[in-house]
Every structure is written in structure tokens, then in C-alpha cells.
Write a structure and sequence with these properties.
Length: about 475
């Protein structure tokens, strides 16, 4: 690898490392926050431990990031209801300007001295394999990384995070399906730095298995498997999509071939105006159709899997009916990047399908079994022999065939019918569609440019070199 690789990454490292003023502000805020939490827990009838977690605890946070994760650890024998109740009580006392959010259980989020704080209750279990809640692992992750990460490796983690952030694959939420901070830290630790990680990633042939603590037991069916060193039954990379793993490999090769700072700089496309959307689809001579509805009132990590399932279910049925789906996608108005608890004000969600075939002949061909297979052939023949709405049965080659009226000759007929509810939909999405949806076809799809102009720009120009 060239010296330019090291020069570029050194400049990026300097750029993304928090300066002394940021560090001082963080330390002061955490000290004051911990003091407030200590006051809030003082009168509780249980022992607690306060743990700073996340990237700020491990010194892998990026300059400009203002997120603080503070965990209040409770005895394992405390029942879940009281853990949740105490956690919310502490959170609201320590963070007066706060609101509740929900992961596996509720927690409190609020602004404090210019930082956004997640104050999370968890169980103080002895071992990560004994967790009672998914967040119980986090203190173990913090200790594991902090004990092994040198200042140089912490800088390499920041560089890797900045690259993944720039190319749109940083984040383990179920919208992004990317690399979590802990996963990046493990990869940098396991490879001994950012440069050897990039070199290895460029040559990965999925499925890839990495076992930092050499547990050597569990198996997973994922493109990248990184065994949690604190919990051998968990793949840290389970959320990562195959597409985002491939994207990481593409940019690893780009960085090796032509090291440049531009790869570390987000460059989102400009939002498209309605006229540009109409022109783009006209030039492609495809037919866009979109199902627009009010997004279900659920947290982001419940919403996006359901949107993905619904998009795939409808696309599969469109393909099965002969309306060839050229490409599809799902959009939803921003709900806070995975941080909101609901959709009280209502926001749009969209399932978009670009069709290579939007209309089929009114008649379709239905082939039966070979005539020589007597029992099945006779059953097929008898089923249609007296059906005045079909042509046939007749013999074509060695089979009985009928020609019958197609149930839906256009994709819009299908999408505008109750048959849409017969496909595999996300449960909350199905309920939302039952309450009503708009079907947009051709030029009407351009009305989605507000608020989805940037999403449409990515859809119509899915350049691998853009985030």
C-alpha cells in the first residue's frame, strides 16, 4: 500500500479526533450528570452501579458527536416492572428536559449541558451469557474494548467509523443495517488497525467468520460473523446486510487503489424536484407505482423490518403475476433516526415499485399435467371441461392447456384490490393499509418528491460511489 494511504488516514484521524475543549466539556457534563443520577438513586431501596458506556466511555467518539450513554445497573433479582419504573424515575429526575423511548424496555433520553443523553436501566449480571435484557451486555462490551484499545487503535476506530458514516453503512439500527460502533471496534482490534482491516476486507469472500475470543462454538448463517467475545452465542454482525458488507468491500478496494479524503466525506445527492422525477422515469420508459400510507405508530426498529417485509411481499406477488419489478424500495419520513417512540403527528411511508411490465394481456395461459399422467390429467380436464369462461381444455404438445381471463390485467388493478392483503405484509403495515392508502401511478409518483426528493434521487441513480 502506498504512503499516500497513511497520509490520508492520518489527516482524517486528526480531523475526527475530539479536541481538548470537547473532551473537557464531555468530562464536565458526565461528572455533573453522574452526580445528579447518584442523587436520584440515593433513596431507592436497591443498590445500583452507574456505568458510562458507548463510544465516549471507550474514547472512540468522533469530533462533533454529542451522545452520552449512561447505564444504571440494578441487581439481577429485581423484577422487570420495578427495573423499568426505577429507571424512568431516575431518568426524569436526572434529566428534567427529557422524554421516554423504547428498545427492549423503556428508557429516558434528554439534553444535558449540550449533550444528548441516553439514560438506560439494565441488570448488573455477573456474566454476559446471563443477561436478562439485551442492554445488559453493554457494560461488558465497554470493559472488553477499554481494556484492549490503545490510543493509536482508538484513532483507527474513529477513521473507520468516519469512512462507514460517509458511505452510509454506519449504524446497527434496522433501517441502516450497517456496522455498529462495537463491531467496528472489534474489527479494528482483531486486525490490529484500520489499514490491515481495509486490506483484509478487500479480499473477504463471504461468509466471513471472526472469533476474537476464540470461543469456537456457535455457528451463524450471516455474511459476516463476528462472535461476541463476551457472549459466544451472539453474532455482533447479525444486523449487517449483505449489501452493506459488499459496500464496505467496494470502498476498501477504492481506498487501497486511490487513497483520497473524499471517500471519508458524506456526499448525499441533491433532492429531485417533481419535474426531474417525471423526466427520469420517462427516460427509463418504466412504470413507477407507489403505495403511500400513514406510517404505523411504532419505533423505528419495528417499522423498518415491517416496511422491508411488505415491500418484498408485494414485489414478489407483482413478479408472480407477470408485472416484472425492475426495482423497488421503501421510504418513510424521518422519525428521529431510530430514536422516536411513535408517530403521534403522523408521517408518510411509501412502498415504491418500478415496473418493466405494467400491463399484461387480459387472457393468460394455464398449463395442466401431461396427458399421459392419466389421473392428474383427467382431473385437470374435468375441472375446466364445462367452464364457459375458458378456452379449452385443448392439447398443446403433450399437455392439456386452457386459456382463461387473467384476474388482474394491470398492476394497478392488483394494488388497488383486496388481493394486496393476501401477500406477506408486516403486521402493523397491514393494519395501516387497511385504514387506507393512496395509489400513485406514473406522473403522480413525482408528487413524492416532497418530502422524498433525496430518496428518489438515490433510487433513480443508485451509484455505488455515493452514500
Amino acid at each position: 500500500m502506498s504512503d499516500e494511504f497513511d497520509a490520508v488516514t492520518a489527516r482524517i484521524c486528526d480531523r475526527v479526533e475530539p479536541d481538548p475543549a470537547e473532551r473537557e466539556a464531555l468530562d464536565a457534563a458526565v461528572e455533573r450528570l453522574v452526580s445528579r443520577v447518584e442523587d436520584a438513586v440515593a433513596d431507592l431501596p436497591v443498590e445500583t452501579e452507574i456505568v458510562l458506556a458507548g463510544s465516549t466511555a471507550r474514547d472512540t467518539w468522533l469530533a462533533g458527536d454529542r451522545d452520552v450513554d449512561l447505564f444504571v445497573c440494578f441487581p439481577p433479582e429485581l423484577d422487570r416492572d420495578r427495573l423499568e419504573s426505577y429507571g424512568l424515575q431516575i431518568g426524569h429526575e436526572a434529566l428534567p428536559e427529557s422524554h421516554e423511548e423504547y428498545a427492549e424496555h423503556p428508557y429516558v433520553v434528554g439534553d444535558f449541558d449540550g449533550f444528548q443523553v441516553d439514560l438506560v436501566p439494565c441488570y448488573a449480571v455477573e456474566d454476559a451469557t446471563e443477561i436478562q435484557s439485551a442492554v445488559d451486555r453493554t457494560p461488558f462490551h465497554t470493559r472488553y474494548v477499554a481494556e484492549r484499545l490503545t490510543p493509536d487503535l482508538a484513532g483507527d476506530v474513529r477513521v473507520c467509523k468516519q469512512l462507514f458514516e460517509a458511505i452510509g453503512i454506519y449504524g446497527s439500527d434496522l433501517r441502516t443495517k450497517g456496522f455498529s460502533g462495537f463491531l467496528v471496534e472489534l474489527l479494528v482490534l482483531d486486525h490490529g488497525g484500520f489499514r490491515p482491516l481495509v486490506a483484509a476486507a478487500a479480499d473477504w469472500q463471504p461468509p466471513v467468520r471472526i472469533d476474537p475470543a476464540e470461543h469456537g462454538r456457535a455457528t451463524f448463517d450471516d455474511p459476516l460473523v463476528v462472535i461476541d467475545p463476551t457472549d459466544p452465542g451472539r453474532n455482533v454482525a447479525a444486523v449487517l446486510s449483505a449489501a452493506n458488507l459488499a459496500r464496505a468491500q467496494h470502498f476498501a478496494r477504492e481506498l487501497l487503489a486511490d487513497p483520497r479524503e473524499g471517500l471519508f466525506e458524506p456526499d448525499p445527492p441533491d433532492p429531485l424536484a417533481p419535474a426531474a422525477v417525471r423526466e427520469a422515469f420517462e427516460n427509463r420508459t418504466t412504470t413507477p407505482v407507489a403505495v403511500r400510507f400513514e406510517a404505523p405508530d411504532v419505533v423505528e426498529d419495528q417499522l423498518w423490518p415491517q416496511l422491508d417485509r411488505s415491500e418484498a411481499g408485494i414485489a414478489d406477488e407483482l413478479d408472480r403475476r407477470g408485472f416484472d419489478v425492475f426495482r423497488s424500495d421503501a421510504f418513510a419520513e424521518d422519525g428521529g433516526g431510530g430514536r422516536d417512540v411513535g408517530n403521534a403527528d403522523g408521517r408518510d411511508a411509501v412502498l415504491l415499485f418500478e415496473l418493466a411490465v405494467a400491463e399484461r394481456p387480459r387472457v393468460e395461459r394455464h398449463s395442466g399435467p401431461p396427458v399421459g399422467v392419466r389421473e392428474h390429467a383427467e382431473r385437470f380436464y374435468e375441472a375446466y371441461a364445462d367452464d364457459s369462461d375458458t378456452c379449452g381444455p385443448f392439447v398443446d404438445g403433450d399437455r392439456y392447456v386452457v386459456e382463461r381471463e387473467r384476474e388482474y390485467a394491470t398492476a394497478t388493478e392488483f394494488l388497488d384490490s383486496d388481493a394486496i392483503f393476501d401477500v406477506a405484509l408486516g403486521a402493523h403495515v397491514e393494519t395501516a393499509l387497511e385504514e387506507g392508502y393512496d395509489l400513485l401511478v406514473d406522473d403522480d409518483v413525482a408528487t413524492l418528491a416532497d418530502p422524498f426528493g433525496r430518496e428518489l434521487a438515490r433510487f433513480l441513480n443508485p451509484d455505488v460511489c455515493g452514500p
